[in-house]
Model the fold of this input.
Amino acid sequence: MLPFFNGYKTNKYGLFLYFSMIVNIIGGGPAGNYLAYLLAEKGVNVKIFEEHETIGMPVQCTGVVTKDLFDLIPKDKKFVTNEINKVEVFLDEEKAAEFEVENYVIDRTRFDGYIANMAKKAGARFFLGHSYLSGDEKEICVKKGGKIKTFRGDILVGADGPLSRVARENSMVKSRIFYHVIQAVVKKKNNEHSYRAYFGKFAPRFFAWKVPKDKNTFLIGIGELCDSKKKFEEFMEFQKIKPAEIQSGMIPVYNPNYQVRKDNIFLLGDAAAQIKASTGGGIIPGLRFALRLKDAILYGKCYNNKDKSLMMNLRFRKVLNRMSKRDYELLLKIMKRKKIRKIIKEYDRDNAAKTYFKSAIADPRVLWFPIKFWWCLLSDKF
Done:
C-alpha cells in the first residue's frame, strides 16, 4: 500500500502537491536523479543519498546513446561531447560491415550532474558522501564519515547500482548474472565520428569496442562473462595499446522476473538490471523506468520489471551468444541491404521490438536466427 497523504497544498497553477510524502532515493546516478526530478516537480519531499562526494564519479560507462535520450532529457552541449554517424563492425580482426547511425557520446560526470541540477531546482535535496547501511521504507540508516545518521520516510528507492545494497538488505536479490567490463581511456587523435564494434574471438559472449569520446580521446575495451581481464589484455595487444588509465565495472543481465518492488521499497536502473542485454546500455531504460516508477508512487500504477524492448534485447543477446562466424556473416549480409540499413538508422537499439519486426517484414531471412536457436529462447539459461 502506498502511504496516505496527511494533507496537500497547491502551486500557482492550482495543482495539488504531495508535500507529506517522503521518498528516500539511494544512488545519485541518472535513473535516481531523474526520478528525484520527476517527483520533486510534483511537490514530493525527495532526498537523494549518494555514497561518493561527486555526482557522476567514478566513471564506468562509454557514454554512447541514441537520439531517444533527447525525448527524455533536453540535448545540451554541456554533456554531449561527440556525435557518431557511423559504426564499423569487425568479425575477429577483419572489418565486415559499416552502418549509418545517429548516436551521441556523453560525458557521464557532466550528464549525471546535469540531471542532478534539474532535481535540485525542482526541490530535491542531495546528501553526498552518505553511504546507505540498512533500513526500509520507514527509516534508513546511513553513514557520513564516521557518523551514523537515520532518516525517516514513506518510500525507499534503491537506485544504487548493480550490487544494490538496498536490494540485499531487503531480501530482494536472488542470483544474478553479470558482464564484467574493462576499458581504457586513450589520449590520441582518431576518427571522431565513427565507432567500432568487435565480435568473435576477443569477446565471444559479448563484444569489444573503440569509441571516440572526442577528436583527441577514445575509449577502448571489452565486456565478458568471465576472464575479462585476460581478454582485455589480448585485445590491447592486438590494438598495440598500453593503457595508462583503466575503468572497470559490472553490467547486470536483464531479467523480467526480478523482484523490483516489495511493499513501498522499489529498485530502479542498474539495481533492477534494467539494461539492454544486447549492448549493455542502461541510461535510457533507466530513465524510462523512472517515469513508470513516478506513476507507481504518485498514482498507484503497476511497477514491475517487464519491458518489451528489454525482453527483445535479451533474446537478441541469447542468440548472439550462440552464433558462429558463419551466422554472423549471414546476419551482416542481411543487414547490409538498403531497406534494413534504413530501419536500423531510424529505430536503433532502444526500439528493439520495432527494429526486429520491421526488419523481418523487409527480409524474412531475419526469422532464420530465432528459428535456428529456438531452444535457447525458451530456456531461462543465459
